[in-house]
Design a protein that fits this description.
The structure holds two protein chains of two kinds. Chain A has helices spanning about 10-20, 20-30, 30-50, 55-80, 90-105, 110-135, 140-160, 175-185, 195-215, 215-225, 230-235, 240-265, 275-285, 295-315, 325-345, and strands spanning about 185-190, 190-195. By secondary structure, chain A is mainly α. Chain A has a two-stranded antiparallel ribbon with strand order 1-2. Chain B has a domain at about 5-90 and about 165-255: Rossmann fold (3-Layer(aba) Sandwich). In chain B, the strands form two sheets. Chain B has a six-stranded mixed sheet, sandwiched between helices. The longest helix of chain B is centred in the C-terminal third of the chain and has 17 residues, at about 180-195. The chains are: A mainly alpha, B alpha/beta. The interface between A and B is large, with 32 and 43 residues. Bound molecules: adenosine-5'-triphosphate and magnesium ion. Adenosine-5'-triphosphate binds next to strand 2 and helix 1 of chain B.
């Protein structure tokens, strides 16, 4: 058999060959398509919408992107783990409502509300995951159910507690100032200010990427989503991984929920519906496959950036805001087609 | 052979899947430095028996004695900690991950430190070495497994199991997709592992001649039971064929 062992030289040669095509390796990254998309969308609105070119408009764009991007990064990890979460949009509102009402009606301090909301959001994530592994139903069905239930609960409980469809203003509450400083302050940068949410968006994307590519758990998420049975057969705790990524989405919508609460001080109980689809769209444009086992956290953050630019771009271009959804749909379609095409090209040889 | 210490004994293993009884009281023994060949019809329960020994599924009833101690395997991880590794019939690879990540799946090499970051370079080097050892021809260990041929994938699964097995190595049709040259290399590897003396090896196979060649002892499984067991040297392909044919005739007559 010794005749078949490749020599050190031939192995080295092969590896060098494999390394030569740098552009191919870049294109092979799942986020390559989203990066191209970001550049194209930017150029498009730069030309079409003159106000888009100012620095202050750009911070608004970044802010929009951040509010999509924070949950979208977590949703990307969930999708790489092979699952969906349709409840993420309303769950962010659930978190804001819970924090607000618990603080004002029960505890009397905003931080107590923040902690209560965190526990609640993690529990909702846990419940989604637990139902998934226990019933073995599709996560699409389970989270569709929790989505509808949360949507109902958000409005019903808010009405019950406040007698209104929105919560009361929290700006006078103890702990408000410090909590606002953490979740929704404005940072000075040069001559302008930008929201701290933008910073968190970048941190989320970086942490997500780091976990996926550099840690054991990241490897397990890819394995559990790609081939769950194989992952189980080598002893990976697939169920724990799945529950874990659902809880991560819970954490991310809590974070967004806290930002929204301290940004606007009052919460509309009907808000959030539809955002879950934007998170999923961001993840998909960013390279995630619906089948799981493939995707990128940074790509999803870039996908959110594309949609953030579109939301604001449509406004700056002075078009009817209804065009936004059309553009989201068109970009999703185009992005998916381009991703598939690039992937096929980059992997063929 | 009976002089070798026993690595594993399974006693009266029963496994039911709802209405289906896959194993109806199977007892086997595996010894250090010995290769056990498991033959049998499709659906006889061979893979099921193996998955019980790897901790992938619990038996409905029965006992496992590993290294002299009765053990209730809690999980695949538990079995792997005890030095039991396996090549599953469906290989249990993850197509989207690289070859080297598959080789170290759930046994990742990490840096020291609080975050236990993946040491990809160490895994890559170790993968190149291991695959070199079994003489498999692969352009780069960075390739995703989904881009390999069936035989190459099988070689990856074998390399993974061989790398971690310190006590028991189970192979479920490890040569099924192999070319003649590659099968030869794998057989060589398995015989060398046997020479090491501390490892008990079981191979599920379908080729009688090949099995008699490699295995020290063979068992024949039919419909959830062991119907025949002998030292390889004391039986022949002819005898095995006769048993299976007789069984088949009896079944048709019934
Ligand atoms: N997870 C399962 N659920 C239900 N039935 C199962 C399951 N696994 C195995 N079986 C049944 O148990 C029996 C034995 O299957 P097993 O895979 O052990 O056979 P085998 O001897 O390995 O066959 P082959 O040579 O075809 O691989 C079959 O009747 C099969 O249908
Ligand atoms: Mg089988």
């Amino acid at each position: 058999m010794s005749t078949t062992i490749p020599t050190a030289e031939s192995r080295l040669e092969r590896r060098q060959l494999a390394q030569q095509a740098l552009w191919k390796r870049v294109l092979k990254r799942p986020e390559a398509g989203a990066l191209g998309g970001v550049i194209l969308v930017f150029i498009f609105f730069f030309i079409m919408a003159p106000p888009f070119r100012s620095a202050s408009a750009f911070t608004t764009v970044l802010y929009q992107s951040a509010t999509l991007g924070i949950p979208a990064v977590a949703v990307a990890l969930l999708m790489i783990g092979g699952e969906f979460d349709l409840s993420a949009g309303v769950a962010a509102t659930t978190s804001s409502l819970a924090a607000s009402m618990f603080a004002t009606r029960v505890a009397g301090n905003m931080w107590a509300g923040v902690v209560f909301a965190l526990l609640l959001s993690l529990s909702i994530g846990w419940l989604n995951g637990y139902l998934l592994v226990r019933t073995k139903l599709y996560s699409f069905l389970i989270t569709l159910s929790t989505f509808l239930m949360l949507q109902g609960l958000n409005i019903a409980i808010t009405k019950l507690v406040t007698g209104n469809v929105a919560t009361e203003d929290i700006s006078g509450m103890p702990g408000y100032d410090s909590a606002k400083a953490v979740f929704a302050s404005g940072l000075n940068f040069g001559r302008g200010t930008f929201s701290i949410a933008i910073l968190y968006w970048i941190i989320f994307a970086a942490l997500g990427t780091w976990v996926l590519l550099r840690t054991k758990v990241g490897n397990w998420i890819f394995a559990a989503g790609g081939q769950g049975d194989s992952a189980r057969a080598v002893g990976i705790p697939v169920n724990k991984v799945k529950i874990g990524v659902f809880m991560l989405v819970g954490f991310s919508v809590w974070f967004l929920g806290m930002h929204m609460l301290f940004q606007y001080n009052t919460v509309q109980s009907g808000a959030g519906v539809g955002n879950e689809l934007l998170y999923i769209a961001s993840a998909v444009v960013g390279g995630c496959l619906l089948t799981g086992g493939y995707g990128s956290a940074a790509g999803s953050a870039l996908g959110a950036f594309m949609f953030g630019m579109t939301t604001e771009g449509v406004i700056y271009a002075d078009w009817d805001p209804d065009w936004f959804m059309f553009f989201v749909g068109a970009m999703l379609l185009l992005g998916t087609i381009v991703n598939t095409w690039v992937r096929a090209r980059a992997t063929s040889g | 052979m009976s002089g070798h210490p026993e690595a594993l004994r399974a006693e009266n293993i029963v496994k039911r899947f709802g209405q289906v009884t896959a194993l109806e009281g199977v007892s086997i023994s595996m010894r250090q430095g010995e290769i056990l060949g498991i033959l049998g019809d499709n659906g006889a329960g061979k893979s099921t028996l193996m998955k019980i020994i790897t901790g992938f599924q619990p038996p409905t009833s029965g006992r496992l004695i590993i290294g002299g101690q009765e053990v209730a395997l809690r999980s695949v991880d538990h079995a792997r900690e005890l030095g039991i590794e396996c090549v599953y019939q469906d290989l249990a690879l993850v197509g989207g991950l690289s070859i080297y990540h598959n080789l170290f799946l759930n046994r990742e090499i990490t840096y020291k430190g609080p975050f236990r970051l993946l040491n990809n370079e160490a895994m890559r080097q170790a993968a190149i070495e291991r695959l070199g050892e079994i003489g498999v021809n692969i352009p780069s260990v960075d390739l995703e497994v989904e881009r390999l041929s069936g035989g190459q994938r099988q070689a990856i699964a074998v390399a993974r199991a061989v790398g971690g097995a310190s006590r028991i190595l189970l192979l479920d049709e490890p040569l099924a997709a192999m070319g003649a040259r590659e099968a030869g290399a794998i057989i060589d590897l398995i015989l060398r592992l046997k020479q090491r003396g501390d490892l008990a090896i079981a191979m599920i196979m379908h080729n009688y001649a090949q099995t008699l060649d490699i295995a020290d002892r063979i068992i024949l499984m039919q419909r959830g039971r062991i119907t025949y067991e002998k030292e390889s040297a004391a039986t022949s392909v002819q005898e095995l064929m006769d048993i299976v044919r007789r069984e088949y005739r009896a079944m048709r007559a019934a």
